[in-house]
Amino acid sequence: MKFNYLTRIRLICIGIFVFAVLIVARLYILQIVNSDSYTEKANRQYLSTSQNIFNRGTIFFQDKNGGLVSGATLKSGFIVAVNPEVLKEPESVYSKVNELLPIEHNDFIVKATKENDPYEEIATRVDLEIGQKISDLKIPGLQVFKERWRFYPGGNMASHIIGIMGFKEDEYAGRYGLERQYQSQLFRKDGSFVNFFAQIFSDIKTVTGDNSDSEADIVTTIEPTVQLYLQDILASVNEKWGSETTGGIIMDPATGEIYAMEIFPTFDLNNPQLIGDISMFSNPLVENVYEMGSIIKPLTISAGIDAGVITAKSTYYDPGFVMINNKKISNFDGKERGTVNMQDVLSQSLNVGAAYVQKLLGNEQFTKYMYGFGLNEKTGIDLPSEGRNLVENLKSPRDIEHATASFGQGIALTPISAIRALSALANGGILVNPHIVKRIDYKIGISKDVPILNGRGVIKEETAEEVTRMLVYSADNILLGGTLKIPHYSVAVKTGTAQMAKEGEYAEDEFLHSFVGYFPAYNSKFIIFLYTINPKGARFGSETLSEPFFDMVKFLINYYEVPPDR
Q1: Residue 370 neighbours by CB under 8 Å, 6+ apart
Q2: Are 294 and 494 in contact (CB under 8 A)?
């Protein structure tokens, strides 16, 4: 008897527990999994029904303290429409509506008096308060529908990263930037949870690919305050020098996380229709290639030191020019330097010196190092339409092709590829994988961090440290006469000036100025790449980009409270 009593008690307890689990599971499904679906149903009951209310995942920025800031979200409002078959006295209705929502008279009357037409939209994206007041008029034939649309709180902030939505035939989807890259995750469709657990535990490339149907929000590595400051710097450079385009990237050289990235001119994400040239929507920092000029010289010098053919103190005689394959290679000013060392090659940016180091390496070994820095491959950054570097010259048997590549001419790189290659100098010789997205927050309630992949070693750690020391010396003593030196912080820098190719020839008066630097130099937290195309009134990158670069450095030191390193 006692046994039966205890058994019943246990069965009752088990039943209560199972019932509680089912209730919790049901609440989870209602409140988390299907929350968007029920919210949409509620929206359809609010005022009038309409077509499916637009829904899409959020793209977040993340501030330095981990707080999330919306970069792309949803905004709610109303569509105001008329049913001409029902609406009476259109002039009177116009007067009442116009008091709340100024609209063009003739347009309203034409739409309100159309025959055999049950639906005409008068206004879209109407403010919530105004839409409610129009609904409260309770005029037969005057309709108000709930609607949502894509909204970008920052306006033009990170516009080339976020990208835009657009139609392709009848499909409305992401067309540029993260909106396109993560279309599968940002897209919302009721009940779309196909193979979720198979995908959540799969490789991250599968999760972020076009075949994923897992609904999610995207958390980026973009720090909004840093992004805004970079954009201000780019705008001021572009305006001061009358450049065609000015761009920049700020990245953590140890992880590949990108804090900021933008190109100027930029555009307002909320009003893309105002842009007449759709090429403005593409991202040249990822998609376009340029001959970068002398910022490639540190790669050449590091290859020479790593291979043992030179040291920082090695000397050579610089006559100002050399002839290779009957082609003349000159220093930027054509002047003879006499006997100089490798520090001078970087500090004075000597083309002849870079070609000398390349010759010591030999074409095959030089190419091997350049490929090691990733110049023959895409970076794999998580943005669409990444361009492919033009480095076919490095396969040529001709010496001249390798010699010009040693100082950044004759080969063309994407800016993202250039900063990736140079980050190896700031990261102990290890090449990183640049990326924009930090975490994917799935609608089901699970988050997945984008893994920091182990990069490959390109040069020895001591080589990277030696070249860094040379670049710090240039910043402290040579760049603009050492006037930009920051006393308690080591900063490694290199400037570049490259002739722009035009119809197969180098234009005499068109240049790309570039600037790269990282700090603290021996334990780097930031690497910054800047460039500007065809600035007016300045010949060299040191003139146009040195001060903006150091303004950016000082801002980052203060904002992140970076401790002194010397």
Answers
A1: 299, 303, 376, 391, 394, 405, 411
A2: yes
Question: Which tokens sit at 256?
Answer: 């590949």
d(Cα 532, Cα 366) in Å, to the nearest integer?
28
Q: Which residue has the tokens 């003739």?
A: 106
SS3 for 82? strand
In the chain, the domains with their CATH numbers are 75-149 (3.90.1310.10), 224-265+284-559 (3.40.710.10)
Rounded to whole angstroms, the Cα distance separating 301 from 296 reads: 9
Would you call 35 helix, strand, or coil by DSSP?
Answer: helix
State how far the Cα of 234 lies from the Cα of 262, in Å rounded to an integer.
Answer: 8
Residues in Cβ contact with 511 at an 8 Å cutoff, skipping those fewer than 6 apart: 497, 498, 499, 500, 533, 534, 535, 539
Collapsing DSSP states into helix, strand and coil, what is residue 365?
helix
Q: Which of 307, 302, 247 is closest to 533 using CA atoms?
A: 247
DSSP state of 242: T
DSSP designation for 445: S
Query: Other CB atoms closer than 10 Å to residue 504's CB: what's the count?
Result: 5
Strand partners, 75: 149
Tell me the torsion sign for CA atoms 523, 483, 542, 323.
negative
Burial readout 208-224 (b: 16 or more C-beta within 10 A, e: otherwise): beeebebbbbbbbbbbb
Cα dihedral across residues 131, 133, 136, 139: positive or negative: negative
CA distances from 284 to 108, 160, 424, 520 (A): 43, 9, 22, 28
The pLDDT profile of the chain, 566 residues, written as one tens digit per residue, is 454 666 666 667 776 766 666 665 555 555 555 555 544 444 433 344 445 688 999 999 999 999 999 999 999 999 999 999 999 999 999 999 999 999 999 999 999 999 999 999 999 999 999 999 999 999 999 999 999 999 999 999 999 999 999 988 788 899 999 999 999 999 997 433 333 333 334 443 333 343 344 899 999 999 999 999 999 999 999 999 999 999 999 999 999 999 999 999 999 999 988 887 888 999 999 999 999 999 999 999 999 999 999 999 999 999 999 999 999 999 999 999 999 999 999 999 999 999 999 999 999 999 999 999 999 999 999 999 999 999 999 999 999 999 999 999 999 999 999 999 999 999 999 999 999 999 999 988 899 998 888 789 999 999 999 999 999 999 999 999 999 999 999 999 999 999 888 767 787 789 999 999 999 999 999 999 999 999 999 999 999 999 999 999 999 999 999 999 99
Terminal-residue alpha carbon distance, the chain: 83
CA distance 310 to 341: 10
Task: Look at residue 505 and give its three-state secondary structure.
Answer: strand
**SS3 category, 232:** helix
Task: Please identify which residue in the block is written with the tokens 């469709």.
Answer: 189
Amino acid at 459: I
